[in-house]
Amino acid sequence: MFKTNRTRRGIIGTAAALGVLAAGVAGGVAIADDAAIKALAPYAQASAKVNADGTREQSQGIKSLTRPANTNGVYCVTFDDVKKIKVSRSTPTATLSSVPGSNPSGYNVLLSTAPTSPCGNAADTLTVYIYSAQGTVNYPFFLVVP
After folding, report:
1. Most buried in the list 20, 45, 91, 145, measured by CB within 10 Å?
2. How far is CA 58 from the centre of its chain?
3. pTM of the predicted model over 0.90
4. 49 and 86 both lie in a single domain
5. What are the CA-CA distances from residue 76 to residues 1, 3, 11, 135 (Å)?
6. Mapped to the 3 state alphabet, what secondary structure does 13-77 carry?
7. Other beta carbons within 10 Å of 90
């Protein structure tokens, strides 16, 4: 069928490269995410493991995550694909992370999909609040947008 081994190898190599490329496109490769380690959440549009100071240990699909100046327990999240993830119509979920020597009992997470003043009233920003009996507090959490 193919006259030379070189032609056969070239066709097989091209097919393999196209297969890898197709798998990356079908899998929804996250871009513009500056977390040090990409999160492994194949069925989520966005996810993150967030430290109390607002830095991300792992994430996918998140463009930025910041804490407004002079605030505790408030985090502003923007997403890579704002055309796909409409914050006002999303159903995000957040869970407190465990911290050695600390007990999150009595802490609560509130997510606002509406624009908020701490995050500049931006319609494309999700606001995460973490509360305790003392008010808003910095605490690590996990975030998922299914």
Report:
1. 145
2. 8
3. no
4. yes
5. 60, 61, 48, 18
6. HHHHHHHHHHHHHHCCCCCCCCCCEECCCCCCCEEEEECCCCCEEEEECEEEEECCCCCCCEEEE
7. 17
Domain encompassing residue 52: 37-145
Higher-scoring residue by pLDDT: 26, 97: 97
Q: Do 12 and 56 share a structural domain?
A: no
Are 91 and 46 contained in the same domain?
yes
Query: Residue 118: how many CB atoms within 10 A of its CB?
Result: 19
What CA–CA distance (Å, rounded) separates 109 from 73? 9
Tally the domains of the chain: 2
Copy the structure tokens of residue 116.
Answer: 């908020």
Each residue's pLDDT tens digit, 79-118: 999 888 999 999 999 999 988 877 778 899 999 999 999 9
List phi, psi (to 5°) of 89: -110, 5
